[in-house]
């Protein structure tokens, strides 16, 4: 029974297996279904090959940095804590502002991609996309309200479904996979013409495929045996994500070379329709998309809860139910995400552009995390890892131009919020 004198805390329930399911579900979802086709919309097959290989290599030092920080700071404050270490107390406020501004775009857009896919596969009218997207978020929020056990269940089901779905699609389109392998070989052999701007835009878009591991930072407080579990979850999930994405990307490239169009957010529908169990895969995709949204909603709710608990956001958000569920943050964010989905659909905002906005914001947060790593790591390797991480972020940020105004504005909002709270405290 809950002791009313003892504050309710997040429970340590995440094992290696549950952590892997959470990590893969956070990183993979609508992105797995949408990115192969979206990448082919903005670059030729050789550019897409180069973009995937480049972004996979560039993420290695960043995954290492988040593994180290996760081991060093096992707190639900996550990125906010890293920012406090990196740039001072106001950094937590700045990161909270950037993440809030990112989640209100990123979570709705992944739901919109999932809604577009479901609409395409089921043959509904285009007007059904935003309804399906909101439905995905309602379902994922509902699982979170049921508690960690429910989210663990949907994440585990999603991981199994992802592997099964990828295997069926690739085996059913084996000829495309072989052609895709040959195209990879041609690109590595220098036969493809790669231009910097096209390569950057493709790599920046594909960065979305690897966004999610930083969201695990908000769940560090819930990991069992963190010294063993955290590194295993980060690195094993990294390999699994690359394997799943590469399998579908190679198949998609082979299809495109063969004259079967797979371009667009729902491009993989062309490959799914060629499988003997197309409708079953639709059900699997719904599970995968819901799990992806569920994992993102979970990470965001932990950020809002920790920020409310620490006085960065209104205290009402920083409260847990007797079962340790951040209900207030979950319900409030659901309302905000739904409004954004309706606005995005109404103004017909391209999903690819919204993905780039989210990627840019996370890159700014990665820079802050790299600095936190550099300040806390005492071994000589910190110089190599820091330089590699900075080079990765510099390349990905190089083409955003004036878009950088958005995260800079959010950082300013966070700093002003910090100053207002300090001023208010000083006058009491």
Can you put this structure into words, describing what you see?
- The chain is an all-alpha fold and 428 residues long.
- The chain has helices spanning 16-27, 30-42, 45-72, 79-87, 89-122, 128-146, 148-172, 174-188, 196-206, 226-257, 269-272, 278-309, 327-346, 351-376, 381-397, 405-427.
- It is globular, with a radius of gyration of 21 Å.
Total beta strands: 0
Fraction of helical residues: over 70%
Cα radius of gyration in angstroms: 21 Å
Number of helices: 16
Q: Which spans have pLDDT < 50 for at least 5 consecutive residues?
A: 1-7
Distance between the termini: 38 Å
Specify the biggest β-sheet. Answer: none
User: Could you state the order of secondary-structure elements as H and E?
Assistant: HHHHHHHHHHHHHHHH
Shape: globular
Nearest-integer average pLDDT = 82
The structural class is mainly alpha
Strand content: under 5%
């Amino acid at each position: 029974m809950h002791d009313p004198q003892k504050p309710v805390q997040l429970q340590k329930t995440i094992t290696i297996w549950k952590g892997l399911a959470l990590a893969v579900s956070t990183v993979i979802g609508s992105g797995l279904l949408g990115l192969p086709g979206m990448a082919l919309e903005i670059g030729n097959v050789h550019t897409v090959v180069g973009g995937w290989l480049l972004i996979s290599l560039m993420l290695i030092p960043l995954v290492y940095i988040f593994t180290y920080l996760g081991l060093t700071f096992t707190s639900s404050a996550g990125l906010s804590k890293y920012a406090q270490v990196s740039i001072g107390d106001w950094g937590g406020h700045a990161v909270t502002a950037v993440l809030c501004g990112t989640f209100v775009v990123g979570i709705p857009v992944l739901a919109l991609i999932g809604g577009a896919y479901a609409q395409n596969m089921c043959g509904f009218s285009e007007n059904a996309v935003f309804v399906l997207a909101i439905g995905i978020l309602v379902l994922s929020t509902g699982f979170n309200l049921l508690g960690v056990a429910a989210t663990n269940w949907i994440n585990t089901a999603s991981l199994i479904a992802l592997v099964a779905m990828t295997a069926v699609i690739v085996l059913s389109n084996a000829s495309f996979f072989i052609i895709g392998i040959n195209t990879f070989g041609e690109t590595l052999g220098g036969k493809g013409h790669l231009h910097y701007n096209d390569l950057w835009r493709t790599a920046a878009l594909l960065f979305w495929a690897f966004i999610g591991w930083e969201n695990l930072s908000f769940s560090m407080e819930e990991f069992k045996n963190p010294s063993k579990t955290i590194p295993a979850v980060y690195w094993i999930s990294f390999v699994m994500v690359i394997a799943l994405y590469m399998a579908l990307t190679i198949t998609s490239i082979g299809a495109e070379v063969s004259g079967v169009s797979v371009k667009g957010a729902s491009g993989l529908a062309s490959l799914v329709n060629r499988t003997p169990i197309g409708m079953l895969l639709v059900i699997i995709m719904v599970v995968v998309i819901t799990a992806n949204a569920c994992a993102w909603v979970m990470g965001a709710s932990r950020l809002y809860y920790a920020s409310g608990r620490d006085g960065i956001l209104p205290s009402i958000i920083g409260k847990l139910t007797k079962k340790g569920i951040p209900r207030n943050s979950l319900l409030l964010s659901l309302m905000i995400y739904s409004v954004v989905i309706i606005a995005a659909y109404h103004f017909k905002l391209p999903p690819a552009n919204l993905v780039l906005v989210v990627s840019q914001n996370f890159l700014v947060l990665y820079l802050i995390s790299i600095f936190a790593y550099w300040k806390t790591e005492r071994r000589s390797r910190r110089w190599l890892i820091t330089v590699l991480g900075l080079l990765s972020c510099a390349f990905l940020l190089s083409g955003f131009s004036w878009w950088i105004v958005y995260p800079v504005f959010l950082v300013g909002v966070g700093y002003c919020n910090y100053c207002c709270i300090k001023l208010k405290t000083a006058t009491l």
